[in-house]
Amino acid sequence: EKGLFYALDLGGTNFRVLRVQLGGKEGRVVKQECDEISIPAHLMTGTSQELFDFIAAALAKFVASEGEDFHLLEGRQRELGFTFSFPVKQSSIASGTLIKWTKGFSIDETVGADVVAELSSALDRQGLDMKVTALVNDTIGTLAGGRYDDNDVVAAVILGTGTNAAYVERANAIPKWHGLLPKSGDMVINMEWGNFRSSHLPLTEFDQALDAESLNPGEQIYEKLISGMYLGEIVRRVLLKMTEEASLFGDDIPPKLKIPFILR
């Protein structure tokens, strides 16, 4: 691969934008730049247009800062790879409908909508001449990135705002697979293991209370046990109980300790 390419990684309370100049087999990655932007809390539960307009505006600003070291091939439109780390039903390489939000997002109108179409419309409103050429889950993107440098890479794990994993499986071992097998004989499986639930998972009273008060009770249980979105809140709940029952901080309870998700 040669040329200038952009990437957008949306999967938690922050999103990242990246540009990379690829030099082919010899040059590989010539240069890359990245920026990270925090998503205001109100946009995580607002409207679809507000969220994607905010993202598109940040991306447009990032594109405007493109330096002379980056070269778009003549006659080529800027291309964007879109990493979207939420459950989707993918219908093609560059389209997929949102099944449900996770990780603190709750925007009902986006559920069932094509997230690439939502982003593309926002890019158009910004006047940004850019085409979304691929939609991938963050685990798939991580696995592909690792495989780019080392063909022996067979799995990827995400431990961030949320958690997930992907691995390479033999296509003939996939019960859900129908149709012709890929030439390689392999398929990458997105596990969505954040939604894993088992009687063997040790749920404490703090885990159960957090889940009951969450935006999606009964879902993403494993994610709520180990991911960055929730670990601070579990610690806060433990500290609050210790303060109430054992005067951990003296006779007075620190007011901020009563604020949900104050520890991040």
TrEMBL record:
GO cellular component terms attached to this protein's record: cytosol; mitochondrion
Protein source organism: Aegilops tauschii subsp. strangulata
Protein family membership: Belongs to the hexokinase family.
Pathway per the UniProt entry: Carbohydrate metabolism; hexose metabolism; Carbohydrate degradation; glycolysis; D-glyceraldehyde 3-phosphate and glycerone phosphate from D-glucose: step 1/4
Keywords tagged on the record: ATP-binding, Glycolysis, Kinase, Nucleotide-binding, Transferase
Taxonomic path: Eukaryota, Viridiplantae, Streptophyta, Embryophyta, Tracheophyta
Positions of the Hexokinase N-terminal domain: 1-148
tRNA-binding recorded as keyword: no
Designated name of the protein: Phosphotransferase
